[in-house]
Amino acid sequence: MKKLVLLLFLILAVMQTATAQTLEGKITYTVDSARKITFDGVKKQIPVSLFSSYLIDPDYKSSMDYIKYELSPTDRDIEVFKKGKFKIGYAVTYNNNKDITYYFTKFKGLLIAIDIYESTKNQKTKYPRKCYRYDTNGQLIAAGIRVSEEESFLYDKKQKLITHRIGDYGYNDKGKRMWKAEEIEF
Known about the structure:
single chain; alpha+beta; 36% strand
């Protein structure tokens, strides 16, 4: 009888511990499943009126000063792009709307493209997060999905995989490593 009581006690103790734990799982995405989610509900064209006031960087002079003196503005994030040692362009994401990033040329601050970020339906977590890139005519150029801090997929407008990033490495559709990301300080 003592053994039965002890056994019941152990079973109940284990069950309470098991039911009190929150299970966390990681969803695995394939190139095809990520593609399907990415292009579900995509807008192939957006109205130019959505970004017409940014066809030229409205803060061009101050953006150039922040870049030149390597300072960070308080109202926006600026990311500089280099080719070799030359700064060729920059991206601006305003703090009051982090769902849109504007890409400008360094010279004259002309808009090149915009990224629009979108959470998936009923999302309460940070990932997955979709991104759509449009040209200055509002035409879709590319689309992607970031499924975690370490992994993302990028496709062209015809839904062909451009790259699958895992950590600091990018892979092609055959799984061959094509590039390594490097952090650039300016």
